[in-house]
Each structure stands twice: as C-alpha cells, then as structure tokens.
Write a structure and sequence with these properties.
The structure holds 2 protein chains of 2 kinds.
Chain A lengths: L9 H6 L3 H29 L10 H35 L8 H24 L23 H29 L12 H33 L12 H35 L6 H14 L15 H29 L8 H24 L1 H7 L3 H31 L5 H27 L16 H31 L37 H6 E2 L2 E2 L21 H14 L7 H20 L4
Antiparallel strand pairs in A: 1-2
Helix pairs in contact in A: 2-3, 2-4, 2-14, 3-4, 3-5, 3-7, 3-12, 4-5, 4-16, 5-6, 6-7, 6-8, 7-10, 7-12, 8-9, 9-10, 10-12, 10-13, 12-13, 13-14, 16-17
Chain B lengths: L1 H32 L28 H34 L17 H38 L4 E8 L2 E6 L4 E4 L1 E5 L3 E8 L4 E3 L8 E3 L5 E6 L12 E6 L12 E7 L1 H11 L8 H9 L34 E2 L4 E2 L2 H9 L1 H4 L12 H14 L6
Parallel strand pairs in B: 1-5, 4-10
Antiparallel strand pairs in B: 1-2, 2-3, 5-8, 6-7, 9-10, 11-12
Classes of the chains: A mainly alpha, B alpha+beta.
Chain lengths: 600, 380
Amino acid sequence: MATYLPKTGILSWLTTVDHKKIGILYGASAFFFLIFGGIEALLMRTQLILPNLELISAQTYNGLVTMHGTTMIFLFLMPLISAFFNFMIPLMIGAPDVAYPRMNALSFWVFLFGGLLLNYSFIAGQVPQVGWFAYANLTSKTYTPDHSVDFWILGIQIVGLASLISSINFFVTILNMRCKGMSLLKMPIFIWASMITQVLLFLSLPVITIALVMITADRTFGTGFFDPGLGGSVVMWQHLFWIFGHPEVYILILPAMGIVSEIIPVFSRKPLFGYPVMVYSVTAIGFLGFAVWAHHMFTTGLGPWASTFFSLATMMISVPTGMKIFNWISTLWGGQIRFTTAHLFAISFVAMFTIGGLSGIMHASPPIDYHQHDTYFVVAHFHYVLYGGAVMGLFGGIYYWFPKFFGRLLSERLGRWQFWLYMIGFNLTFFPMHFLGLQGMPRRNFTYAPDQGWEFWNIVSSIGAYITAVGALLFAFNVIYSLLRGQKSGPDPWDGRTLEWSLESPPPEYNFAAAPHVNQVDDWWHQKYVDGKKVSPPYQPTQPDSPPHLPNPSFWPLVLAIGVTLLATGFFFSTTGIYISGFGALVIIIAAYGWSYETP
Amino acid sequence: MRNFLHLLNSRLSKSILTLGIIFWNSYALAKDVGKGYFDDAPLSLSPELSKSPMYTLVGITDWGKEILHVYGITTIIALIVFLCVSIPILYVLFRFRATGEEQELPKQVKGNYILEIIWTVIPLILLSLIAVPTWQSIFRQDKAVKANLQDKNALRIEVVGYQWWWKFVYTDFGVITANELILPENTPVVFSITSADVIHSFYIPRFGGKLDAIPGKVNKLTYVTPALKSNSGPEGDYYMGQCMELCGLSHALMRFQAVIRSQEAFQDFIKSHNQPPVVTTASEKRGEEVFNLCIACHTIAGTPSANLPSEKIGPDLSNFGDRKTLAAVTRKNNMANLKAWLKNPLRFKPGSLMPDLQLTDQQIDDVSAYIQFSTAKNKD
C-alpha cells in the first residue's frame, strides 16, 4: 500500500521517511516555535522596561517565564539541532539514510504534537506558571489546582519521548552506517559531537521521564513522591530534574561546538587543530556533564561535602572546554580567514561562549553562587552559553549548510546585517544583566520597585531585545528571499572538507550514487588537494548503477504519534479521560501492527 | 534587494528618532500608570542603601566578607583567563584575514602536543586557586553553624517562608513577628530556615548569601550581625531582603527587611512585643471588635487572638504599628495604604490568601486605626 504514496505534495511530507525531508520539517517547526518563544521574551522585556509597569499581570508573566524557557529549550534548540542531525549525519558519514527511517518520522511527529499540546495551554487559558524547571511542590495539586502544570508535564513527556527515539536512531546510525574506511577517529568532528550528544540524551532522558511519571502520579493519583506531608521530598525533584537538566545543557551546546569545529577549518583553509584532543574533550565534557547536576542546587543546603564535590566537578568541566577554545583559536592561527556570515557566527560562538563559561566558573564556587543564584547574573550566564553560544553556532550552521539543504545560498549581505544586529542586540540585552545580577535583581519577578537602582540597565536590556527582534525578522526575510531568488550554490560553494560537499545541492534522495570510501579525516578535501596543490577530484557518479533501495513512505508514524498524543490528552479529563487515553492506546496498537506488517 | 537596503539606510536615523520619541512618551505615560504594586517613593532605608539596597558586592557580616574574599579571587582569575582568550582571538582575526590573492594553501598544521598539555595544566593550576578558598569557606560556615548553635550568647531565629511573606520566630523569647526581622547588633545569629508551603529562598544581600526555605527541611545559616552605623537613628539600620525562589503568583512581592538595633533597643522590642495593645480612641475600640473577623489567620499578642489553638496562616500583627511597611515590604505603612490594602488585597498582591472581607468603609477606618495605633509599642 505504502508504495502508492506520492513523492511530492503535502501528502509526501506527511508520510516521508527521507532523512532530508524530516530534517527540513524539524527545522521549520523549530522556527515556528521560535516565533512563540521570541514573542514571549519580547513581552517580558517590555514589562520589565520600567519599574512597576502593569502591562502584564503576575499570572501572565509567570506563564511567559515558564513558556519562554521551555519553548526555547525543548521546542526551538532541540528540534533545530535535530534538523542538523537528520540532514547532515547520513551525508557526512556517507550513508543513504538513517538506520530506522520510520522511527525517525515517528520521532518528528511525536515531537510536533508534544510541542503543540504544550502551547495549547495558551488557547486553554491555563499556561504553566512554575518555571521551566517546575520545582515541586509548587507543581502539586494544592498549589497548582488547575491543569496548567499538566500541559507542561505531558508536553515535556511527549517531547522527551521523541528525543529518546531519535537519540537511539542516530546512535545506531553513526555506529553502524558509516561508509567504508571511516573508522571512529576518521569521523568528522560534528559526527563525534553528535554521537556523544545521543549518549547524553538516552542516558539522561529516562531520568526526566520517570520524574515526570512520578509528578503525574502525584497529581493524578495522590501518591506523595514530592509531598513533604506524605513523607516525600521536594529536593528529590530537583535532583531528578537536574540529573537530566544539566546533561541537557551539554545536549544543546555539544552539537553547536561540533558545527563550529566544522566551519572554522573550512573558512581558515586549515585542518582542525588537535582533532584527537577535540574528540577527547567532547567525550570528557559529556562524561563530566553527569557529575555536576547539584551545582544548580547549592542554595538548597546540600551540606559541605556535597557542595565541595559538585563545585570541583563543575570547575573540572572548564578544562576540556578551555582546550576546545584554544584549539579553535589555533585553527584560525596562520590560516586564510574568510569572513563569511557562517564564519562570523562561528567566531562569535567562541567569544560569547567564553564569556558564558567564565561567569559559569564564578558560580561554580558555592559561596559566590549563594549571591548569584536566582539573580539576573545567572540569566546573563546561561544566555551567553545557550544564546551567544548554541544559537549563534547553529545560525552559523544554517548559513553554512543552507546551500546543501536547498541548493541556494543565503544572501551574505543580509546575513551580515543579521549577524551584527544579533551581536549588538544580544550583548546589549544580556551583558547588562550581569550588572543587574550584581545589584541583586531577582529572576522571574513580574515587576520591581522603583527604588532599587535597577531602572537603567533594564531599559538598555529591553532595547537590546528589540534590536535582536529586527535581526530575526531580517533572517526570516533572508530565508524566504534566498529560497526563491538566492544564488545557485553548486555542490561545493565553500571549498568544503567533508563528504556532503561531494554531492549535488540539494542531494538526490538516495544521497550517494556510489558508496563512498574514505581514507582519512576530511577525505573530500584531500581528494581536492594533493600536496597543497588543487587537483580535480575523482569522478563522482551522479546516477546510481542500479535503482537504489529506499525505504517506502509510511503514514503509520503519523498515526502512532496521534495515538501517543491522545493517550496523554486523557489526563486532562477527570471522568472521560480514561476513554480518551484508552482510545489513544488503541490507536497506538493499531499503528504498531500496521507498521509491523508494512513492506518497508 | 539593493533598493530595500537603501531604504533601510536612508530611513534609519529617522526611525531611531521616532522610536526615541515613542519611547519617552510611553515613559511619561507609564510613570502615571505605574502606581501599582510598590510605592513610588523610596522605602525608608538607611540613606546610603537607598540607591541599590540589594547590591551584592558589599558584605558587612563575617560570612558576607568571607564570600566576597572568594568572589574577589575568582573574579581576578576569570578576568585573566578572559584576556588570555580575547587577545589571541582579536590578534588572529586581524592578522590572518584572507586577502583573496593567496596562491598557496596556508601551512596545514594539524596540532601540537606540547601546546595541548600547556593549556590543560595551566587551567588546572588556576582552578585550584579558586577551589581551595571555596572549599575552605564552605567548611568554615559549616563549623560556624555548629559552634553558634552551642553558643549561649547566640540568638536563634526560626525563619518560615509563606506565600508571600516571612514569619520570624525568636524561639528563646516566645516572640513571633513578620516581614521585619529585628536583630541586635554585634551578635551571632543562627537562622533555622524552613517553609510552610512551597520553596522560598531567604536572602539579605548585605549580610551574605541566600539559603532556601524548603518545606520538610531545615537549613541553617549563621553570621555575626553588623554594628550599628554611627549615624543611625533610634529605629536602627534597615537592610533589604527578598525571596529568591519562584514561589507562585506574587513571588516578586515577597520582600522583607532586616533591622539592626542596639542591644537595649532590641531588648525593648522583645519585652514590649507581647504586651497587649493600648486602645485609647473610640474608633480603636470599635476596631478591636472588627478585628475578631481577622483572628482566624492573624494574631495580636495579649488579645484573645493569641489563644486560638490553630496554626495561623497570616502574619503576626503584634507590633504592626511599629513597622515601616506593609504587605511584605511592598508599600509604606500608613493609614491610606492600610485602608487600600484592606479594601482590595488582591490588587496589591495577586493570589494572596488575604480575602476581601467586604468590610464597610467605617469598619475599615476603625480596624485600621486599631492595628495601626494600638499596636505601636514605641509611641513617643
């Protein structure tokens, strides 16, 4: 049946199992949700522009705080990263697709419905107000009697399921589907970063999954895991959340580091400095990332030994991170640096991430953290890491690989405008937050008194946010303009180093007409340059000899994802809920059978 | 494309000007609108604090100074590292720009073993410079808590966070107060911090770091209170504090003040606190009656409200008349604000458990007079 499904049109997108199409779907949904997250940020900055403003009520503001954090992490950064995983991993390792194409589609649809369910809270008028970390026992039935927290719990549960599915998929893909000759230490550095990210994902996500099941049980069935009145512990939630939540930070930053490590060598025309060290440092960061979660909890009174341990472990992470920064600088050193937009974003990643890292070292020390915790200093810190760092790196990746995605270059001119608007806007927004933090301004406050000395930097910060918004609009315009009228890129516009640049842009559905064979890191570069002299690379066949074996499109992933969403929706209804959840379970079972008996 | 950018450039200056005008107009408007949650006039703090009362880089207790010591070392090291990274980056970006005329590839350097070792070892040394004082100060605070708990001269105070106000219990004296934490100068204090509902965080920036108030858990914090300032009046020195952990709707409105007083003034506070209120005028007399509507949640020491067996979920009002502020340090304590608060509590504190009791204007006037004037112990 599945073979009759069309290859073009809307139906093809709904049933696609092609990793490139799914990658584009992920990217598009990420930017769709960015609209929400961005508007939420702008509204907050507008409310805080002056003391005592009443543009936004306390209730709405707390909702915006929660949804901005949750959206930016789970519905913007993670899917955007997933878009890169989907599109680039098979191309960079010389594979025809991912290991489990239909699982890949499933993971996208599950993610999309989870994100929509979470944002449905706006329509339902019950926006979660407990922060993206949802500390117990504010989330209990007593202190949040309505369904607002349920939207957060179930939305995150579903989105987490999607990430869990895709992490296993990509891990298997990277381990099993590399082309001939690509041993582990010959993989592109982005693939290394991706692989470690998958490990972090499938080790940390089960923790939050279980924590969310526990809080669901607390709210729905009256168990007392996090209720001190029933012998539960509210601090336990914090442990569980951050055992997931801290590796999550590295899940967001490692892929961006990988992307930057691909971009800098290309635009310096030099190989990555210290490739094996870069590999080991990614691994070390991933490993240490699991041993530092309680540095989010120094003020909960951990006791002196735990505080010391988590403090030292946190400081240790700066060693492999510092090595990466110096290796990037050394890659640039002595190169021929071309300031393309992609490269500008990649370099700004290094600079901004350094600032975020240094403020991180400061509150790695518990006594300092006793001051900085929950002030705007921390807001400044993690925006330098996740926005100045991860988001800037990912924008670099977009400018770098856009021609590979769509066959057309993004406008460099508009790109540079966007870059500078972002750099100025970002620093204007978040650098003053360091000062606000030192002045003791608490986070997550919907308003503040006029006699606190916080007015000036709040105005500056809000203006910065508006400047960034202009940059974002320019980017949207650039994408639309370039998709329609952008310059055709050809297969290798940047003189790239890795396998994907040996393919046409966009690549054919089967990716490689003939399975590639690599001998070293950056093999494509070494095919083009022999002894420092440019040679014409060996002939790349564009048509496969025999019809390639490609997985058939399938609508079962979509149906199964609908089933999962229905199953979760049941929790919002007290009496009819069981039927809705039951129906969802039925849909899941039917979809699973349909899936199993389908010709792949 | 080019036209579009041209348009942008030529209009850019005008747009900025327009934005500026809009902005300043909204500022003027907002100044009138912004009469909401806090009074516009500064709360009466010690004069030098009035600018930035929550500023974190001043420590006036032993604990606060110790933290700033670690803070200073760490900041210097962070700045050194910042220079070690930013100078090479800037140098590289200017020195190695592509000219577009290069004939040859740059030297294809793949790495350097020695360099990698250098930038592994140097950070480790720098980190140990931060780690050691960190480690020392953590254990010193732990030791101080244990020592001060045994100290007979130390003052023990139980701090309980409520949505959205603070209860302070002077366990050795049977005195309970709210939102104004009155402390004697130069005295070791041990706070036992906990919560009655959700997680809060107890923070007086001038005195040192914050510590969470967690339901089902007691956290201990200790330091020696600072001396009175030379220029401080009989009311003592006021220091700002605030809840720092998101604790629900009105988290932003959960502030408090610490008040440092002389030993004698502190003893006066303790002795007078549980004295019954002095009712003089007829209005206060009527207010005393009205107050019976409040006693399920509030207590005034020395009245029948203090004899109810149930746990009170509202702030203790025994010395309300002496307090500078009301509604957890969000408004100045005067008759106008008190009446406005009683008329519509949720207007000033969204989500507050304080109900609108539907009092008549007369009742509000009377009960305000009662809790405002009868409870003032320091009346001259």
